[in-house]
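Inputs:
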Amino acid sequence: MDITTALLSMQAEVSLVAILIIVLLTDLFLKESNPRMMQSVSCILLVVQLALNIVPTAGEAFGGMYHSTEMASVVKTILTAGTLLVFLQSGEWLEREDSRRKSGEFYLLTLSTLLGMYFMVSSGSFILFYIGLELASIPMACLVALDKYRHHSAEAGAKFILNAMFSSALMLYGISMVYGTCGTVYFADLTSALTGTPLQILAMVFFFSGLGFKLSLVPFHMWTPDVYQGAPTAVTGYLSVISKGAAAFALMSILVKVFGGMCEQWSLLLSIVIVVTITIANIFAILQTDLKRFMAYSSISQAGYIMLAALAGDGQGMSSLVYYIVVYIVANLAIFGVISAVEQRTNGCVERSAYAGLYRTNPHLTLVMTLALFSLGGIPPFAGFFSKFFVFAAAFHDGHWLVVFLALINTIISLFYYLLIVKAMYITPNDNPVPTFRSSALMRTSLLLCVAGIIVLGLFSSIYQLLSDVATF
Amino acid sequence: MEIHVIHYLIISTVMMFCGIYGFFTRRNLLALLISVELMLNATNINFAVFNRYLFPDQLEGHFFSLFGIAIAAAETAVAIAIIINVYRNVKQVLTDDITDLKG
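Outputs:
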């Protein structure tokens, strides 16, 4: 295979690299003349990227090192759309006096983490997977520490990079044992070679705990609340949905595709981790008053629900996992959009008490937040209800009824803490609520898109149908 | 005495678990970084040894350790940059003093 065919079969990555270079050059030569230009350029380029890759394609290159299925291609499109939403929301923060000079870096680093996730979801061997994972997590540490003069941000960055290195070292140790027992790191050859010897089980556990850190499953979740609280809000939004979505998809496809022969062992491990994750995250979420920390625990428990789909390990599980990720992206980004809009008017305060009485002054923002919280909690007819339903159905169909039952109880607990915020916004009296304000046009567009997603994704079954049509491993 | 796979593996396992122990007990950010480097190097030894002794006719393990070294260097560079930034803000790199965010 010559180089042109190889490049053509990885067209999504190639076009994203082109976009990265264009953004870099814009940052270098044109930013001085018009500082607001970076946001519009990056958003337009991402729309182009979406348009170029809207049709799912499968491809293979470099002797099976790069292996993209139609499902991976759909996931890439979803991640790109989510990144576009984050970019639309980031304008107000980046126009502030102290972060204006860093707007170019923000877009560049975000795009390079996106490139890493592209490679991660369409890798055909552990080498490319590892490179993609690191390409996604090293720039992410820089993003977390982007607010250089606020020491919370620096502290969160240090915690993030050290935890990321620790987890990738654990994961690599697992991969080295896989290599030692099978003699190959290509997914296609590993499927038949992994049979479940004790060393391979140990390898699987190491690998799983490495990715568990990225997904912030309990007991590997300790870094999450600190990093979410310390990072700039736009970055927190990105971290909580896009990188989590990519890691969940990659973990599921590797568990099913590569460790398929050890299904019995990993499904037991995964069931225990899921139940513990959802329960502990729910208990801690109730105790939080800082909204970003609260969203961190909420996202830990959502990660548990996402991995519930992986338990099923078939096409139905795959499509319900991706559907859950889509719904989770729009709902969570709506909440982070509101948080970052309000944060600009309260001098960075994200306590729940600051939201008391928000309904009287900003009814539209309150409505967006309420719908998103309902969707996360799983109240019908919003998309969150259907995504939870599909995930439960997939796991139940495969016989994991006890896990599904425990997750169901936890859903009811989670409703309680999601409604605490709704109560604060509508009912709790407050003498000086956040004054009425109007956010920028792009921010309003992104919130509108999120709300449309929350409502439309639940009501049109064709989206789930599309996902289940392309669901292959 | 001849050196077998097992001798290398003992070294790499000891390195790995020293690293894990150090990561959980050390109180200095730079010491944490050194512990993590120890873990990453243990995996590099594993890859090279498995390749050399068990599968001498291929190169995948050697390549994996090469990539591992390169990426670990990149990570260390970023980590040190961030630690310097923490020091500028707090004038301290001990974890006991960096406790504004409580997990």
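Remarks. The domain at 5-97 of chain B is CATH 1.10.287.3510 (Helix Hairpins). Chain B has one domain: 5-97.
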